[in-house]
């Protein structure tokens, strides 16, 4: 299958949404809460999703779109999975780490992934079996081979406090090894940072499909590995993801252990 038209479209849509995010900086964002007070949504989330949906449907009217804000619309073998603004809490606070994430699945297989960071103007992309790229330069995961203080991991905490405290237990296990761990706040970008070797591994509870669909393909195409906490193939419903440079994957699973 020629994935180029889909990739080009995803890039156009991601950049359009990124431009909206940049344009709104310093303006009234009409901030509201969703599941809990800290789970924010802004007018920018909605506008970004609107422009992405419109861009996709103008080109491929029969395709299905699953977006964080608008849910699933349509039914097709082609499903676009869209996080219009990943890192909304960061964005709403003016903390410059957020992005747009767009993936395309065909018959349940991820085939295109695009993540765009409008702050640094960094565009990550991958097509199945075509490698992974950052601003058109091929990227690969790190070669860090030991889970020691020389490695660096990232994670995030879900909005619900009881799961966040469970995640803290896993966090403590890695911390006790003397590992530096970052909590950047935009899962799609965290995954891309594994793909380009800026971090060596990532784990998180309760991500949704739109947080990780694009990032998973980008990591796999960069030579990394993804699984659930048991080491099996990651399904969105698992809600527990481990991503790594492949070399560290088994070691990360051992640290997490069986009970999580
Ligand atoms: C959130 C971010 C964050 C992660 C949360 C996500 P949102 O997405 O990816 O890093 O820890 O679980 O919900 O709400 O900003 O799109
Ligand atoms: Ca998200
Ligand atoms: Ca979002």
Summarize the structure in words.
The protein is of the alpha+beta class. The protein folds into two domains: 4-138, Fructose-1,6-Bisphosphatase, subunit A, domain 1 (Fructose-1,6-Bisphosphatase, Chain A, domain 1), CATH 3.30.540.10; 153-256, D-Maltodextrin-Binding Protein, domain 2. Helices cover 34% and strands 26% of the residues. The chain contains seven helices and 15 strands. It has helices spanning 4-23, 43-59, 88-93, 161-175, 187-195, 209-221, 249-256; strands spanning 32-33, 40-41, 64-67, 71-73, 78-86, 99-106, 109-117, 122-127, 132-134, 137-138, 153-156, 181-182, 201-205, 225-227, 240-244. Helix 4 links the parallel strand 11 and strand 12 (181-182). The longest helix has 20 residues, at 4-23. Residues 83, 86-89, 156-158, 185-187, 206-207, 211 line the site of D-MYO-inositol-1-phosphate.
Could you estimate the helical fraction of the residues in percent? 25-40%
Classification by helices and strands: alpha+beta
CATH topology of the largest domain: Fructose-1,6-Bisphosphatase, Chain A, domain 1
Q: How would you sum up the major sheet?
A: 8 strands, mixed
Report the bound ligands by name, code or SMILES: D-MYO-inositol-1-phosphate, calcium ion
Average per-residue pLDDT, rounded, comes to: 96
Shape: globular
First-residue to last-residue Cα separation: 39 Å
SS strand fraction: 25-35%
Give the count of structural domains.
2
Radius of gyration (CA) equals: 17 Å
Low-confidence stretches: none
């Amino acid at each position: 299958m020629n994935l180029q038209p889909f990739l080009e479209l995803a890039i156009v849509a991601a950049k359009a949404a990124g431009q909206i995010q940049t344009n709104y900086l310093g303006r009234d964002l009409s901030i509201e809460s969703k599941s809990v007070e800290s789970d924010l949504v802004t007018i920018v989330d909605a506008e970004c999703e609107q422009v992405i949906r419109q861009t996709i449907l103008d080109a491929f009217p029969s395709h299905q779109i699953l977006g964080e804000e608008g849910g699933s619309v349509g039914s097709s073998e082609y499903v676009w999975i869209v996080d219009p603004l990943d890192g909304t809490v960061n964005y709403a606070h003016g903390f410059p780490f957020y992005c747009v994430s767009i993936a395309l699945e065909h018959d349940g297989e991820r085939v295109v992934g695009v993540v765009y960071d409008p702050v640094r103007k960094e565009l990550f992309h991958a097509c199945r079996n075509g490698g992974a790229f950052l601003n058109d330069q091929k990227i690969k995961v790190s070669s860090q081979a030991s889970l020691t203080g020389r490695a660096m991991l990232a994670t995030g905490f879900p909005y619900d406090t009881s799961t966040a405290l469970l995640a803290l237990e896993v966090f403590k296990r890695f911390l006790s090894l003397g590992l530096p761990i970052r909590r950047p706040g935009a899962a799609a970008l965290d995954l891309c940072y594994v793909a380009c070797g800026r971090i060596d591994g990532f784990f998180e509870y309760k991500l949704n499909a739109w947080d990780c669909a694009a990032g998973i393909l980008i990591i796999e195409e960069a030579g990394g590995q993804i699984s659930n906490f048991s080491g099996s193939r990651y399904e969105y419903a698992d809600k527990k993801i481990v991503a790594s440079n492949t070399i560290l994957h088994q070691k990360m699973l051992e640290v997490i252990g069986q009970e999580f």
